[in-house]
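Good morning,

Attaching, inline, the backbone tokens for the sequence recovery test we're adding to the shared suite. The designed sequence is right after.
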């Protein structure tokens, strides 16, 4: 429970975070970074952008495991079915003629 105060110190409201379900586990940022194999700063940045739901308890930042799974699925990169190849630059876009090797 967190109490919200006015600038003169008078309490105006109390905030109670929603209760956790029994199956929901909270992870620290360090645990989340290990699970996703990402630096901790990337996790903090994703929380700040709103990509990962997090709960703040004092100075601690805890992430529900379900929110982490959702973020991990959104980051999945799919392989291209056709191999990529280096293409010659388009003269119209670059304004330069492509290099042609003679000989």
């Amino acid at each position: 429970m967190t109490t919200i105060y006015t600038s003169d110190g008078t309490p105006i409201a109390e905030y109670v975070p929603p209760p956790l379900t029994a199956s929901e586990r909270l992870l620290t940022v360090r645990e989340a970074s290990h699970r996703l194999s990402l630096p901790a700063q990337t996790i903090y940045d994703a929380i700040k952008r709103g990509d990962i739901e997090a709960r703040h308890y004092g100075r601690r930042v805890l992430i529900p495991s379900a929110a982490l799974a959702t973020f991990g699925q959104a980051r999945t990169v799919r392989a291209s079915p056709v191999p990529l190849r280096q293409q010659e630059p388009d003269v119209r876009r670059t304004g330069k003629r492509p290099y042609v090797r003679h000989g």
